[in-house]
Q: What sequence folds into this?
């Protein structure tokens, strides 16, 4: 099976780093749990501001994993399947992103930058964005506060963590 895994918000806890930097720079305090929509429609900042600070954070801040056991779980998946990192984060030099993946012990076959992930040939996409649901690809929607209002449907499943993803793939529930 060919599996595409998103970077920001799925592997990398970029949002909490962003919120800390936003509070430090502009005094805007907002909790991660209060992010209600993927494009931050109700938040006191814009998606453009998020991307600007995200670029800065990738180069200058320590970004943690979304979950501590993620490398082990993803590496177990990659033992039997092709796992590629597929990101729309084309606004940061690839060397920073690859270095982060290496430092976290995440194994993968290829690193691909593509803004329209559903055009690629994968059996499964693991992503925190609900915009890929219903676009023809099997999607594991990685549960985040800002995507909890999104409905999954045919060929899409909400997942809480990479252990659940591994189990679903192992049981061929995709």
A:
């Amino acid at each position: 099976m060919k599996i595409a895994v998103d970077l920001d918000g799925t592997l990398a806890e970029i949002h909490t780093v962003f919120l800390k930097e936003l509070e430090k720079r502009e005094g805007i305090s907002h909790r991660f749990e209060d992010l209600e929509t993927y494009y931050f429609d109700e938040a006191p900042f814009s998606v453009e501001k998020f991307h600007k600070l995200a670029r800065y954070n990738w180069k200058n801040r320590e970004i943690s994993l979304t979950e501590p056991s993620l490398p082990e779980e993803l590496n177990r998946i990659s033992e039997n399947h092709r796992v590629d990192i597929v990101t729309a984060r084309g606004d940061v030099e690839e060397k920073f992103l690859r270095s982060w993946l290496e430092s976290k012990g995440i194994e993968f076959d290829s690193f691909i930058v593509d803004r329209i992930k559903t055009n690629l040939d994968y059996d499964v996409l693991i992503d925190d964005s609900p915009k890929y649901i219903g676009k023809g690809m099997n999607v594991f929607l990685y549960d985040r506060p800002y995507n909890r209002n999104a409905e999954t449907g045919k060929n899409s499943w909400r997942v809480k963590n990479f252990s659940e993803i591994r189990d679903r793939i192992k049981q061929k529930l995709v």
Remarks:
- The helical segments are 14-26, 47-60, 70-78, 94-103, 162-170.
- The longest helix spans residues 47-60.
